[in-house]
Amino acid sequence: MKRRGLIWLLVGLIVLSLALSGCGYISAQTKIREAESSLAVLKNAGGMEKATYQYCSAESYLEIAKMEYNDNQFGWAKRFADRSKAASSAGLSEIRK
Fold first, then answer.
1. Is residue 12 part of a domain?
2. H-assigned helices in the chain
3. Per the structure, how many domains does the chain have?
């Protein structure tokens, strides 16, 4: 009886760990897509010429986010994707001034 309970506990822990790791994977992927969209908007608004610093920052952060994602470092990928999106937003604000 104890053995059966231990097996169910281990199965539960495995399922829980898979579910949690999947959440990081999906949310990192979503953040990267959002950052790509923000960068595209900045580029279409002339960000390369009008907000060069912010554009280059957004592009660099996005590249790092993708590298971290490919290395299965989903937490870091989300952080860098957020920084990329923030830099794109700052660039758009700069252009609108």
1. no
2. 2-44, 47-50, 52-70, 74-96
3. 1
91: part of which helix (H) or strand (E)? helix 74-96
Q: How far apart are CA 62 and CA 48, in angstroms?
A: 15
- pLDDT average, residue stretch 79-86: 98
Q: Is 63 a domain residue?
A: yes
pLDDT in tens, 62-71: 999 999 999 9
Joined together, the tokens standing for residue 71 give 């290395």
Q: Please, what is the end-to-end C-alpha distance for the chain in angstroms?
A: 71
65 assigned to some structural domain: yes
- Whether 57 is covered by a domain: the verdict is yes
pTM, 2 dp: 0.77
Look-up: residue for tokens 């990081």?
Answer: 24
Nearest to 28 by CA among 65, 61, 83: 65
- Assigned token pair, 43: 């580029």
